[in-house]
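Thread: Newbie trying to understand structure tokens

Hi all, I'm a second-year student working on a class project, and my supervisor (Dr. K.) asked me to get a predicted structure for one chain before our next meeting. I've only ever worked with sequences, so writing a 3D structure as a token string is new to me. If someone could post the tokens and maybe explain what I'm looking at, I'd be very grateful. Here's the chain:
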Amino acid sequence: MYFRIIQSVFLCAFASLIVAGCQTTAAVKSPQQFQISQVKVLKAKADVGTVNLAEDVRYKTLRQARRYSEVGQEKVMEVTLMNLHLKNPFMSVMVGDQNHMSANTRIFDKATGNLVATFNTTVANKRALNGISGAIIAAAQNPIDVEQDLATLISEKILVQAYGSAYAKSVRDRPVSAAIKPNYPKNYEALKREFICASKRQSGFSDGSDEGAPVTFEVPKECKVVASAR
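---
Reply by user tm_fold:
Sure, no problem. This is what the structure looks like when written as tokens:
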């Protein structure tokens, strides 16, 4: 009987923690309505993602921000991308791994320049499968697709943290802004093609099965075009 009482108390407390964990308090403490009118995205290191990543996060965040509010006090959001990690096939088998991205966000009042909020954000995808299945997924994934997916996830989560989950829920059916357009440094199809071509070239190295003899393959036509254009 005593054990059942303790068990019930523990389960209730655990359930409360889960419910509480689903609620995000607004990072911006403002009694008045506000809007994110400008988004700046930086990289902590130059090698975080592709040349398109900063613009992709900026574009997606600002586009989503219009859904939250287009009136009120103007705020400037500065996002620093701290890390981008791609699921590793070996780690997926040994201990488990996942694709994830992290960022630090600071929000300033546009009129005064005062810092009004700062917070960290981490998002992940394809976290469910590890072991052999996870390794297959990791080996088959195109990192450009993964990067774009994580950019979408982090832009959405940053705004939920800024406004709070209750407000985010109230505006989730509003359409995103079609007026916001991206200005990518490079075409995404070109980036994906470069990755595929680089993978093909890497497959030309020895696989260790025949004393260092290279594996022969025919370079796809599109890869030859890319190589000659450089």
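A couple of things are worth pointing out once you decode it. DSSP finds eight helices and four strands in the chain. The longest strand covers residues 73-85. Feel free to ask follow-ups in this thread.
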